[in-house]
Design goal:
The chain is mainly β. It has one helix at residues 2-42; strands at residues 57-62, 64-72, 78-86, 92-95, 100-103, 116-122, 127-131, 138-140, 147-148, 154-159, 166-172, 183-187, 203-206, 213-216, 224-226, 239-249, 252-260, 269-275, 284-285, 303-306, 312-315, 321-324, 344-349, 355-359, 365-370. A hairpin with a 4-residue loop joins strand 4 and strand 5 (100-103). The longest helix has 41 residues, at 2-42. The radius of gyration is 39 Å and the shape is elongated.
């Protein structure tokens, strides 16, 4: 028994050792194979840096720019001060066919285009250089850091990152030459219709049943009588009548009517009403003070139009434009609001504050927008 048992003891450890070695060998072979495959992958073409032959600008964005503005002191002396503005809202169009980059909406008057910081993005990391204005020298361009002089068009050259070629883009910055707040006019294509004037929805006219005013908010499908102050009802306009209305503030509509009265020698009469939910107000006559030199001349037919910043315009048939910033009390002409034509047959204001004029005789339509 003892001899048999000894053989068993000698055999069992040998079996265990052989099995363990096989397992270790298998794991070692697996690790060796994995490391070989990993090394093979790292050394394959898929892991190498990829080069591209793209040489195109994909976006061009302006940064914060300086603007020099004029001001006049109380003494009458002129001075200039500097302000900054974010120019990234001015879209730069990229013409890939003709290799041009430009802004369709001009930068504000007084913008300093001699020191412009911009960001240029290219396809697949193309490298950007800027050409000198006096030679063929190229300077490496760092987006959002380098200041560029755009007082004349500049050439940006994009090199493909594989070195296969380059492409030039001519970049132009357009700056408006008109002052801020001035209407810039554009003649529209032939046949362009005038839009319907944007107002608060009410229309007004004189009553046919005697002195009074009627109103409608459904294009005269239904008509309501308006309350009118009896104290000055004899000064209601009788001809050359025009009216409009706009939202003065939440829940309140400001209505205005102008026209001629036989009781006034030189000035048109102006009536107004504040319409609220209570309907508690009435039309009242805006008395003209004797020392008020800024009034609407009598004897003209006006288009009365709500305009920007709560102001209202009165445009006559000769194209003369009067503006009131105090809801009809005073009316002034200004060099910033000048009609492009001398004969007007229709006028309108759209929902964005754009001014539209139709020229008498030719039928040409002009669109005006205030510059920023």
């Amino acid at each position: 028994m003892s001899v048999f048992l000894g053989k068993v003891r000698n055999f069992a450890p040998k079996f265990v050792i052989d099995y363990s070695m096989k397992r270790v060998f298998q794991v070692f072979c697996g690790l060796l194979t994995a490391s070989w495959l990993l090394a093979s992958c790292l050394s394959s073409d898929d892991g190498e840096t990829t080069r591209y032959d793209d040489m195109a600008v994909s976006s061009f964005t302006l940064g914060t720019l300086n603007r020099y503005l004029h001001t006049t002191a109380k003494s009458g002396a002129d001075s200039i001060y500097k302000a900054t503005f974010a120019a990234n809202g001015y879209k730069m169009s990229i013409d890939q066919l003709n290799h041009r980059i430009y802004n369709t909406v001009g930068l504000p008057q007084g913008t300093d285009v001699a020191h412009v910081v911009c960001t240029v993005t290219t396809r697949n990391n193309g490298v950007v250089y800027v050409k000198s204005t006096t030679s063929d020298t190229l300077a490496y361009f760092q987006s959002a850091k380098d200041s560029i002089d755009f007082r004349q068009p500049r050439v940006f050259r994009v090199f493909a990152n594989d070195g296969s070629g380059s492409r030039d883009y001519v970049v132009t910055l357009n700056v408006r030459q008109q002052a801020s707040g001035q209407v810039q006019w554009t003649q529209m294509p032939s046949g362009t219709p005038l839009p319907e004037t944007h107002h608060a929805g009410w229309e007004f006219a004189l009553s046919q049943d005697g002195p009074g005013i009627v109103a409608s908010n459904d294009h005269w499908a239904t008509v309501v009588d308006e309350p009118v102050s009896s104290d000055d009802s004899q000064l209601l306009p009788t001809h050359n009548i025009s009216s409009t209305c706009w939202n003065l503030r939440k829940g309140i509509v400001y209505a205005l009517m102008i026209g001629d009265s036989d009781l006034m020698d030189d000035a048109a009469v102006v009536w107004r009403r504040l319409i609220d939910s209570d309907q508690s107000t009435e039309w009242t006559y805006l008395t003209r003070d004797e020392d008020n030199r800024y009034y609407l001349p009598k004897g003209r037919s006006y288009w009365l139009l709500p305009f920007v910043e709560g102001s209202v315009l009165a445009i006559d048939g000769t194209g003369k434009i009067y503006q009131s910033r105090d809801q009809g009390i005073t009316w002034k002409t200004t060099s910033l609001l000048v009609s492009p034509v001398s004969a007007v047959s229709a006028a309108a204001v759209d929902a964005d504050g754009g001014l539209w004029l139709a020229e008498s005789g030719t039928g040409a339509v002009w669109y005006g927008k205030l510059t920023e």
